[in-house]
Structures are given as C-alpha cells and as structure tokens.
Design goal:
The protein is α/β, with parallel strands linked by helices and 200 residues long. 40% of the residues lie in helices and 14% in strands. The protein binds uracil.
Length: 200
C-alpha cells in the first residue's frame, strides 16, 4: 500500500472534531500521487460527503471544466481540501477544525511534493498567504521553498457570482506558464507577511 493510501486510512480513523460524528464519508483528497499541481479547496459539501471524493458537486464540475481549459484532467492533478469532514449545513470551517485538520494536508503535501499549490478560496489562501485578501492576490503567485503558491477564487464563488467567472477562468489560464517558469522564478526571501508577489 502506498504511503498516501496509508495516510487515507489514518484520516478515516480521525474523530478529533465534533463534525466527524455527522460525516457520511471522510473526504481525504484524490489524484495523482506524483502530481505537479495540487488544488486545495475549503471543505467537503453534501456531494463530497456522500461519495468520499473532493469536488464532485457543481463546483467540482466547474473545476473539471477549468482544468480542461488548460488541457488537464483531474486524474493528472491532486485535489484536496483544508478540512476533511463536511461541516453541517455547509457552514464555514471553524478555526479549531482547521487547526486540527491541517496536519493531514501538511502530510499530503510532503508525500506528493507538488511543484505548485493552487489555493481555491479564502480558507486555503489563508493557510499559505496569511492576512491577504483574495480580491487583491488572486491570479498572483509566489515561490517559497521550491513550491509555487498561487491563489484563485473558489469555483463555487464563480458559479454564484457571474462577474467572477471571467476572472477565475483567466487566472486558470496563467497556470501552465507559471509552471513552466518554475525554475526561473526568484525565491521569495521574506516571511509570508512581506510577500514578494509575481504577476504573470
Ligand atoms: N467545495 C470545496 O471547497 N471542496 C469540495 O470538495 C467541494 C466543494
């Protein structure tokens, strides 16, 4: 069994948060174990909780279309969430839930070692670009410790707000050139508070 599958087994046993009681299935994440790009959303919704798979509801179908726009299939990337259990009534994740659950995401990143991490929405952005505003930093990237971090709006936000659709679609189209530039991008020397942002 791969280290990632072993990790999924560990995640399935986790009952650290109250919300674990209400889950149908835990949603650890899925995709290529050697993916170059890792997409990180917020939390499972109803569809994800039913199937135990990330981004399989309407936002997921839209994410599939966005991936197709850069000639990628979901099997070629890795898709995960900040938290692995569905918050009841799809409420926003609590700070305590993010605190408890982020160890799983950290281990997924260690195992997959992606070249690029794409944050989808505010919650995953906050983990990698703390204190930043999504309206300011979406579509911009930073390289730290050999990983390119890139912030995007959440696909569900674009589904609910037509005006964001063009923005998210344009931001997605920047990904291939960012990946190609990975080697030449200068490392940011500052701590996350003084981000060195790279516009493409
Ligand atoms: N929204 C998310 O953030 N993650 C999912 O898996 C589905 C919808």
């Amino acid at each position: 069994m791969s280290a990632l599958n072993e990790l999924y087994e560990e995640i399935a046993l986790c009952r650290q948060c109250e919300i674990a009681k209400y889950r149908t299935k835990v949603v650890p994440g899925e995709g290529a174990e050697d993916a170059d790009i890792m997409f990180i959303g917020e939390a499972p919704g109803w569809h994800e909780d039913q199937q135990g798979r990330p981004f399989v509801g309407p936002a997921g179908l839209y994410l599939d279309q966005l991936l197709a726009s850069i000639n990628l299939k979901r099997e070629q990337v890795y898709i995960a969430n900040v938290i692995k259990c569905r918050p009841p009534q799809n409420r926003e994740p609590l700070p305590s839930e993010i605190h408890n659950c982020c160890k799983w995401l950290e281990r997924q990143i260690e195992l997959i070692r992606p070249k690029m991490i794409v944050t989808l929405g505010r919650y995953s952005m906050e983990m990698f670009f703390p204190g930043k505003s999504i309206s300011k930093i979406h579509g911009t990237a930073q390289k730290r410790d050999n990983i390119i971090y890139y912030a995007m709006y959440h696909p569900a936000a674009a589904l609910h707000q037509q005006s964001l659709r063009q923005t998210i679609e344009a931001d997605m189209l920047k990904i291939p050139s960012l990946l190609a530039q990975a080697e030449s991008m200068t490392q940011a020397k500052e701590e996350p508070k003084q981000l060195n942002m790279f516009e493409v």
